[in-house]
């Protein structure tokens, strides 16, 4: 069980993420969108969506900082565990609170606004469930194991495990003593990562940074292969009358 | 000089009767799908009126098009690139579906399935957005022909502008009111703000013919283009989550056919043709400080295909010979640059639109005749233009950013044409002074008359095909590109012909004799084709 959860699941999630994204890019570029519901309802979305997205972006930055930066490095620049804990507690909680507030508003909107609810697919519902669970569990785990004076130091256990994944020698024993709430959060988190390419979450990979660097007006030439009659069908594509 | 070719349109508003045939045929061809119920790539508005979507011309609210920043450089009115990306998680300036209208259908089943009762069953309207019963309160042409004008007339943003200058010019009292129809499609601008707003780079202007399109595989549904377009002619498909817009019927244009809206136009008021323009001058022209000078600035961007130097440059730029020849015969170029009777729609948006309009003159003759004057006398007409029912100021707000001079000049030419042609038709000798008073001469006026009033099919639409080298392949033919002996099922290989086994009689494959050129010839010639006559 230990090996399955902490030795295999992370790799399964990453493989699904990468392979799924490549598959989606090759076969479903047309579906690569969030199917925005803003034309149905704009007022609430204009508040809730930026709140959620900025919140979740800070949460992601916090996770990257906490999991990928070794404790040694922060010690070296004179940031001791207590200061780091306070930063993580208040900064992280603020970002998390924004994300939770945002997603609750968005879910409220999705459920109560009839056109928006009607445009919601089963896929969306699964995604919302996992996303909400990941966020709420994360907040819960953090707050349940923290006080102002001290908190659970995941940088001794979870963070080294995550880093050991990159060397392909997962240090599964690090995760043994970790509080159950953190363990559940980590598993749901990995599930969420695996789900990204198969849900509307895929839109996170289309952040349009290139917009900053291209000329305003885009010109494209006609595709020469699209001119003229369609080519003769191959033998196996012909229907038998 | 960097010449580029653009297919452009001119609409002669004098002839528009507001029948909406263009809208309906366009809808049938392009937007009769889920998610596009509320979308009309082509719509016909009654002016004065709010338009579709409601009050789209109010750019202080919708933030479409370009403006000049403090240094006099072009900037998207809705904010630059960084502001755009920071605000990407929602788009506060996006029109909601109710700004267009909530699409609906009727519960027809109730007509047959309603239980026996005292009342006749009715088919109630049902929203296509949430499926619930709804009250139908607005549509794409709810204020058609001034319907509800006492209530809605003041909501026209252009009426507000005109009233600021000349309060008494726009009246909605029944006896003093005026109206005309304004069919609108995508402007396929030279400086498109929708393309410039697209974060994904999925919108583009085709280099060969200037048609602005959305790459459906590249669109990520950020909705910035909807805001960016000041004409609100990019629409959000709420089923697929992608932007869609008027395609200028490019599959038809590529084979030399006019767009569906042009082809089906009952009034024959649309003109299609090639315009050559200098791509290097576009930004400079769009940055012209004075809004009222933008019309002249855009004229300055267009190139004269009669100029040998232009033709050489066009050849160097890779514009095919038949395109340059088409530009020389282009009715659009003639109406815009030669006669200068066509004007752009809202040049003040600085997008350099490429669908232009000949302003309406019609009611003036009847109005003059009613007052006991000779309605087609040139002097009477010229004098009346300033006191038209349709105020010059209102037309100017729509076509020239408020400058009445180009509108007056255009209407004067149309009036001069009427007077001149009346003399011709009555067998009189038309006076030279009529034509000269508007800077034209007799033969030129008669040419313009032929283009505007006779408006033959082949004069209205001068469309070069996409690839002349491919022209033969594009022709409809039952003969495949490859030899029928080449593939397994071909007749030569023992397979069946188009009529199956034909009772065992092997015959050569049938070929359709009528390709589309023949079809077009039949459509546009005055004589009945002989084979038809023989059958009768």
UniProtKB/TrEMBL annotation, chain A:
Topological type in the membrane: Multi-pass membrane protein
Predominant location: membrane
Keyword set, alphabetical order: Cell membrane, Electron transport, Heme, Iron, Membrane, Metal-binding, Nitrate assimilation, Oxidoreductase, Transmembrane, Transmembrane helix, Transport
Domain of life according to the entry: Bacteria
Transmembrane segments: 6-23, 44-64, 84-106, 126-143, 176-196
Protein's UniProt keywords contain Acetylation: no
Domain NarG-like intervals: 3-222
Secretion signal, residue range per the UniProt entry: none
Localization in the cell: Cell membrane
Entries under InterPro entries matching the protein: Heme-iron_electron_transfer (IPR051936), NarG-like_domain (IPR023234), NarG-like_sf (IPR036197), Nitrate_red_gam (IPR003816)
PANTHER family given in the database record: NITRATE REDUCTASE PRIVATE CHAPERONE, REDOX ENZYME MATURATION PROTEIN REMP FAMILY (PTHR30598), RESPIRATORY NITRATE REDUCTASE 1 GAMMA CHAIN (PTHR30598:SF3)
NCBIfam families: narI
Name used for this protein in its record: Respiratory nitrate reductase subunit gamma
Organism: Streptomyces luteolus
UniProtKB/TrEMBL annotation, chain B:
Listed Acidic residues bias regions: 526-536
PROSITE patterns noted in UniProt: 4FE4S_FER_2
Region feature Disordered, mapped onto this chain: 474-536
Domain 4Fe-4S ferredoxin-type: 7-35, 177-208, 210-239
Gene3D superfamilies attached to this UniProt entry: 3.30.70.20
Cofactor needs: [4Fe-4S] cluster; [3Fe-4S] cluster
Keywords recorded for this protein, A-Z: 4Fe-4S, Electron transport, Iron, Iron-sulfur, Metal-binding, Repeat, Transport
Cellular localisation: Cell envelope
InterPro entries to which the protein is assigned, alphabetical: 4Fe4S_Fe-S-bd, Nitr_red_bet_C, NO3_Rdtase_bsu
Keyword set includes Nucleotide-binding: no
Keyword GTP-binding: no
Source organism superkingdom: Bacteria
Name of this protein: Nitrate reductase subunit beta
Protein source organism: Streptomyces luteolus
């Amino acid at each position: 069980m230990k090996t399955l959860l902490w030795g295999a699941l992370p790799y399964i999630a990453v493989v699904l993420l990468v392979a799924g994204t490549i598959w989606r890019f090759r076969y479903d570029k047309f579906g690569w969108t969030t199917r925005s519901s803003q034309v149905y309802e704009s007022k609430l979305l204009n508040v809730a969506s930026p709140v959620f997205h900025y919140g979740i972006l800070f949460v992601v930055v916090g996770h990257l900082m906490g999991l990928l930066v070794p404790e040694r490095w922060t010690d070296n620049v004179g940031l001791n565990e207590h200061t780091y804990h306070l930063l993580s507690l208040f900064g992280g909680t603020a970002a998390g609170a924004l994300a939770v507030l945002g997603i609750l508003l968005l879910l409220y909107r999705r459920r109560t606004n009839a056109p928006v609810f009607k445009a919601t697919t089963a896929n969306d519902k699964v995604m919302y469930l996992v996303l909400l669970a990941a966020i709420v569990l994360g907040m819960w785990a953090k707050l349940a194991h923290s006080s102002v004076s001290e908190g659970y130091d995941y940088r001794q256990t979870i963070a080294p495990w995550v880093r050991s994944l990159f060397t392909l020698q997962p240090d599964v024993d690090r995760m043994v003593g970790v509080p159950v709430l953190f363990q559940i959060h980590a598993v749901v988190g990995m599930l969420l990562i695996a789900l990204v390419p198969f849900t509307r979450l895929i839109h996170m990979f289309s952040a349009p940074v290139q917009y900053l660097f291209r000329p305003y007006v885009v010109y494209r030439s006609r595709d020469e292969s699209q001119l003229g009659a369609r080519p003769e069908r191959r033998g196996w594509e012909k229907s038998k009358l | 000089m960097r010449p580029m070719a653009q297919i452009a349109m001119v609409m002669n508003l004098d002839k528009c009767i507001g029948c909406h045939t263009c809208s309906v045929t366009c809808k049938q061809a392009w937007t009769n799908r889920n998610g596009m119920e509320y979308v009309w790539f082509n719509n016909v508005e009654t002016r004065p009126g709010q338009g579709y979507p409601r009050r789209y011309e109010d750019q202080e609210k919708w933030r479409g098009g370009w403006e000049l920043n403090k240094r006099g450089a072009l900037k998207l009115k809705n904010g630059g690139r960084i502001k755009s990306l920071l605000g990407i998680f929602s788009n506060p300036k996006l029109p909601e579906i109710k700004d267009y209208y909530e699409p609906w259908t009727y519960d027809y089943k109730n007509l047959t399935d309603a239980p026996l009762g005292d009342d006749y069953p009715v088919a109630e309207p049902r929203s296509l957005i949430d499926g619930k019963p709804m009250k139908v309160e607005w549509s794409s042409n709810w204020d058609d022909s001034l319907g509800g004008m006492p209530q809605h007339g003041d909501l026209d943003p252009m009426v507000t502008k005109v009233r600021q200058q000349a309060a008494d010019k726009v009246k909605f009292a029944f006896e003093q009111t005026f109206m005309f129809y304004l069919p609108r499609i995508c402007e396929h601008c030279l400086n498109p703000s929708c393309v410039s707003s697209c974060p994904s780079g999925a919108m583009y202007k085709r280099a060969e013919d200037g048609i602005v399109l959305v790459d459906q595989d590249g669109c990520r549904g950020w909705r910035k283009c909807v805001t960016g377009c000041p004409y609100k002619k990019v629409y959000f498909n709420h089923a697929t989550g992608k932007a869609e817009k008027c395609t200028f019927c490019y599959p038809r244009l590529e084979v030399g056919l006019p767009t569906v809206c042009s082809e089906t136009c009952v009034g024959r008021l649309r003109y299609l043709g090639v315009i050559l323009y200098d791509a290097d001058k576009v930004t400079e022209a769009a940055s012209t400080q004075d809004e009222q000078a933008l019309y002249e600035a855009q004229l300055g961007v267009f190139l004269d295909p009669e100029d040998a130097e232009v033709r050489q440059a066009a050849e160097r730029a890779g514009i095919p010979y038949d395109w340059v020849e088409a530009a020389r015969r282009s009715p659009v170029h003639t109406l815009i640059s030669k006669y200068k009777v066509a004007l752009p729609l809202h040049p003040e948006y600085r997008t350099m639109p490429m669908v232009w309009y000949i302003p309406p003159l019609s009611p003036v003759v009847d109005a003059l005749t009613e007052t006991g004057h000779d309605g087609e006398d040139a002097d009477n007409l010229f004098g009346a233009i300033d006191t038209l029912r349709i105020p010059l100021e209102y037309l100017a707000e729509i076509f020239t950013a408020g400058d009445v001079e180009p509108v007056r000049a255009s209407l004067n030419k149309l009036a001069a044409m009427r007077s001149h042609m009346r003399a011709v038709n009555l067998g009189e000798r038309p006076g030279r002074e009529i034509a000269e008073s508007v800077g034209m001469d007799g033969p030129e006026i008669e040419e313009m008359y032929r283009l505007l009033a006779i408006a033959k099919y082949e004069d209205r639409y001068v469309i070069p095909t996409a690839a002349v080298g491919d022209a033969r392949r594009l022709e409809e033919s039952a003969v495949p590109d490859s030899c029928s002996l080449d593939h397994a099922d071909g007749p030569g290989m023992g397979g069946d012909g188009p009529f199956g086994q034909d009772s065992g009689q092997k015959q050569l494959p049938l070929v359709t004799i009528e390709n589309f050129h023949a079809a077009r010839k039949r459509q546009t010639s005055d004589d009945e084709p002989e084979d038809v006559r023989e059958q009768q």
